[in-house]
Amino acid sequence: MVALEKTAKQVIEENQAAVQDTRFPTPYQYMGVAQYALGDLDQATRTFEEAVRVNDDDVDSWLQLGKCYLYKLKMPQAAAALEVAVLRKGATDELHSLFKARNWMANWQDRELMIDQIERFVDGNLRAGKQTSVNALDFADLPLPSVLALSQQAYHMHVSSVDRRLCCEFDDDWQLETPALRIGFVSSDFGVHPVSTLMRGMLALLSGPDHPDVTVYCYSLTAASSWWRRNISRHVDHMVSLMGKNAVESAAIIRAHRVHVLIDLNGHTLHSGLSIFQYRPSPVQWSFLGYPMTTGSNAANGIDSFVSDAVATPVESLTQQFTEKLLLLPTHYIVNDHVQMLGHTLEGPRPRLPGVRDHTFVFATFSNWQKMDPSVFSAWMAILARVPSSVLWFLRYAGHDDAEGNLKREADAHGIDGAARLVFSPLAPWVNHTHGKRAADLVLDTTLKNGHTTLLDALFAGVPVLTLEGNRMSNRAGTSALRALDLQHALTVNSLKEYVDVAVFLATHPQVMSKLRAQVEARRLLHDEVTRTLHEWWRVLKPGGALFVSVPDLHVLASLFVRADMSPQDQYLVMKMMFGGQIDAYDVHNVGFFEPLLVAFLENAGFCEIERVANFGLFNDTSAMAFHGTPISLNVQARTCDKKDGAQHVHVKLTTV
Are strands 633-642 and 181-187 parallel, antiparallel or unpaired? Predict the structure, then answer.
C-alpha cells in the first residue's frame, strides 16, 4: 500500500491529464484507497476531496469521500457526499452507506423505504452469489439469515486468495517449551476508543506480577496515538506495530513470536485485522469484544471460537447465528476497567443535571444516534407524555447539531415540547463522564442495538438501566449485564408496551426507584460470586463427581477472636484469617462461612451427599490447619447431583468425621 500511494502520487504529479479519464480508476482513487488502508484518514479525505474537485463525475471518489467523512464522524459532510453519489450520480448499490450516515444524525427521512430497498438489494445479491459491502452490524432490521450470510461473505472477501504456507503446522515443542502462556491481541483500536477503555485493565492485569506465567503481545494495526495507547504500552509485555504491513507480513511477525492464543478485537470494523487470521499464525484463534456478532469465519479458515456469555448468546436459540464455536463465560462477557479507573464515581453526592429544575425525573439514553430508531423514540415520547415532570437526556455525539434539530422536531410531532423536554449535554472525557451520569434517574436502553460501554458506565455509576430483551447478541447486551447483577427481573422487559409501562411505574414510584438504585449501587462491584462459582463447579464436574472444599470456619474464628487469653497480636492474626491475608490481589475473603451456610450454598448449586470431614489427608493442605491448638478449617466433601434425579455415584470414597 505504501508503494501504491507513492506510484499514484507520482502519476498525478507527472500527468494531470490522465486524471480526467474516468473509464478506469483514477490515480486519485488508487492513492486515496492506499492512504485509507494505511489508516491515514485525514490524507485520504484530502485526496478524495481533490479528486471530486478535479472531476465532479468521479462517482467512486464521491463514495470514498463520503465513507472517509463517515469514519471521521463528520456526519453532515458524509451525508452530503453520499447523496451526490447515490441520489445524483446513480450509485444505488451504496444506498446503505447513505442510510448509515443519515442514521448517525437521527435523520429518519424515507427510512422504511430505504430499509426495504436495502433488504431487497442484499437478498438479490446473496441469491446471485454477488458480493456487497453492506456491514451486517449496521442493519439490525435485516433478517437473521441475511445477517449470517453477510458476515460470511465479508470474511470470505478477506480470504479470497490464501497462501497456506503459514498454515496449521505447530509442533508440540513450540506449545510446551515454556510454562509461560503467550497471548496476542490484534486491534486497530488501541487509541481513543471504547475497546481501549474496556481492555486496559485486563491487559495490565495479565501482564502484571500476579500472572508471571503469562506474556501479552498487543498488535496494533494503526498509528493512533493517545494516553490509552501509551498506558497500555507501558503495562503489556510487548506492543508491536503492524502499521503498513500486509496480512502475510503481519502473520509472519506474529508467528515468529510463537503466540499460543491470538485474539481478534475488531471483527468487521474499521481497519480490521481479520485477514491476518486466515494464515493461522497461532494454533488457537478467537474473536472477542469488538464486534457483537459472528465474523463469518470458522476453524477451517481463521477464527476457531467466539467469546461471549450464555445470556448474550444463549446456545439454545443463537448458536445458528454463529459460524464459530461459542466460548461462553459464566458472567457478562464485556470486560471493563471501572474499578481501577473510575473509583471516584463512587464518591460524593450525586451531581445535578445543569438547567433542570429540582424534582424533575431524569430519563437518559447515552447511546449514540445510530442506535436509535423511530419505534424506540416513539416509546420514549410515550413515557414523557405519561410522566409530565420529566426530561430525556442525551449526550452530544458526532453530528449532534443536525441530530438535535431532528429529534426535537420528532418530539414536537409526538406532542412533546422538544425544546423543553429533550436535554443535550457535551461529551466529557471518559474518566469524567461516568461520574456525571449519576445525575440520571433511569437509563432507557436502545432496542435495535443496546448500549455496550455506555450501559456499563451507567450501571457502574449506580444508575438503573431498563432494557428490552432482543433476539441477537447486539441487542441482548443489556439483558446480560443486568443478569450479572441479578436485576433482570426488575429491569429487563419483553415488549415495547412493557418497556413504557415499567419506565412510567418506576418514575412515579420514588420509593421503588430508590430501592432499585441502592441495589445497583450495592451490586456493581461484586455480586453473587460465590453462587456463580459453585454453579460453575457443578457444571464442569461429571455427574457424581466429588468436590472438596476447605474454608476458614467463621464460627471458630469468631470464638477465638473474643477469647480472653488472645493477645492483640493473636487477634490480628485471627482477623487476617477471617478477611484474608491480602498478600496479593486474590488473598481477600469476600464472604465468611460456617457449616449451615456453606451447606445451603452447596445444595443450592446442585451438590448432595454433603459431609463435614476432619481433614482431607491428600497433601499438606490447610484442611488440618490449627491455631492455638484449635482446628480452624471447615472441611466439606460433596458430590454433584442431577438436579432432577439425584446423585449419580462414582467410586470415590469420602472419609467422614
Answer: unpaired
pLDDT in tens, 588-647: 677 789 999 999 999 989 999 999 999 998 888 889 999 999 999 999 999 999 765 443
Which backbone phi and psi does 444 adopt, to 5 degrees?
Answer: -100, 110
Q: Are 411 and 417 in contact, with CB atoms under 8 Å apart?
A: yes
Spatial distance between the Cα atoms of 279 and 167, rounded to a whole number of angstroms: 5
Within-domain flag for 149: no
Same domain, 419 and 513: yes
> Within 10 Å of residue 57's Cβ, how many Cβ atoms?
10
Separation of alpha carbons 265 and 248, rounded Å: 19
Report the DSSP beta bridge partners of residue 287: 264, 306
d(CA 550, CA 615): 9
Using DSSP's 3-state secondary structure scheme, residue 352 falls into coil
**Integer angstrom CA distances of residue 306 from 264, 285, 564:** 9, 9, 58
**What is the tens place of the pLDDT at every residue in 95-141?**
999 999 999 999 999 999 999 999 999 999 999 999 898 999 998 87
Q: Is residue 153 a contact partner of residue 132, using CB atoms and an 8 Å limit?
A: yes
Element containing residue 287 per DSSP (H, E): strand 284-288
558: Cα separation from own chain's centroid: 43
Q: Please identify, among 118, 136, 154, the residue that sits at the C-terminal boundary of a domain.
A: 136
Are residues 223 and 88 both part of a single domain?
A: no
Which grid cell sits at 35? 492512504
Q: Is residue 377 a contact partner of residue 410, using CB atoms and an 8 Å limit? A: yes
Residue 159 lies in a domain: no
CA atoms within 13 A on the CB side of 400: 14
Sorted by sequence, the CB contacts under 8 Å of residue 488 that are 6+ apart come out as 479, 482
Distances (CA, A) of 341 to 196, 337, 345: 12, 6, 9
Whether 277 and 203 map to the same domain: the answer is yes
121-126, long-range: CB within 8 Å, 24+ apart, which pairs? Answer: 121/92, 121/93, 121/95, 121/96, 122/146, 122/150, 126/150, 126/153
Pair type for strands 361-364 and 442-444: parallel
Q: What pTM did the predictor assign?
A: 0.82
The span from the CA of 288 to the CA of 324, in Å, is: 12
- How far apart (Å, rounded) are the C-alpha atoms in residues 500 and 140? 21
Q: Do 382 and 312 belong together in one domain?
A: no
Q: Are the C-beta atoms of residues 371 and 342 closer than 8 Å to each other? A: no
Q: Please state, as a whole number, how many other Cβ atoms lie within 10 Å of the Cβ of residue 86.
A: 24
Range of the domain at 442: 344-523
Nearest to 459 by CA among 474, 432, 431, 437: 437
Distant-in-sequence, close-in-space partners of 362: CB < 8 Å, separation ≥ 6: 353, 356, 390, 391, 393, 423, 439, 440, 441, 442
